[in-house]
Design brief:
Length: 210
């Protein structure tokens, strides 16, 4: 497949690029600073992108089979950046009539797991309060996805870890895995790539966790 990856210098985005190349896909990585991209490969193209201008991104998404985004706030100071960045990506995709889009949001954006324990419920409330500005931005991001003309999927992980790829995790379409508290960034990337051709995930939030 021909894929475009936004946020390719981040933890999840970098893993998407690496795993996609290993799987034999052709990848275009859109970055602000190419020097920060640690991944290399014969099938990798790197585009320095202006993420405020949809017109500037059209060539990066034209003819792609899917677009995957790891864009998002890395610290609480960055709260509010995800929605405008995603809106730019959507504008470029819609101009080029590229439909498949997968993005990373977060577990608290979706519904609570069935049979959620009192401990997990309390943790969810604390985390949602501490990161409320980031989650408000991600809710707005998902609203933008829902209003778009794309075949979107929002992947919702819990706390992220730097762990090697396992390929062993749970996912719940429209919900969240019971008792799921952690997942490695490499496995989130793996989950996103596996969902590209999965029609059941289109127009859905998908919870992923160990």
């Amino acid at each position: 497949m021909k894929l475009t990856v936004f946020g390719a210098t981040g933890g999840i985005g970098g893993e998407i690029v690496r795993q996609a190349l290993e799987a034999g896909h052709e990848v275009t990585a859109v970055v602000r600073d190419p020097a920060r991209l640690a991944v290399t490969g014969e099938r990798l193209g790197v585009v320095r992108g202006d993420l405020s201008d949809p017109e500037a991104l059209r060539s990066a998404v034209a003819g792609r089979d899917a677009v995957l985004s790891g864009l998002g706030a890395r610290t609480r100071k960055d709260a509010g950046i995800t929605t405008p960045l995603t809106r730019t990506v959507l504008g470029a995709m819609e101009a080029e009539e590229v439909r498949r889009l997968l993005v990373v949001t977060a577990a608290p954006i979706g519904p609570a797991p069935e049979r959620e324990s009192a401990l997990d419920r309390g943790m969810r409330r604390v985390v949602s309060a501490v990161f409320r500005d980031i989650y408000a931005d991600l809710r707005e991001t998902e609203a933008e996805l829902a209003a778009s003309g794309t075949d979107w999927t929002a992947v919702r992980p819990p706390k992220l870890l730097d762990k090697p790829l396992t390929g062993r995790y749970r996912r719940v379409i429209g919900g969240f895995p019971h008792g799921g508290r952690f997942i490695g960034r490499a496995d989130v990337a793996h989950a996103m790539l596996s969902m590209i051709g999965d029609g059941a995930t289109v127009g859905q939030g998908v919870g992923v966790a160990y």
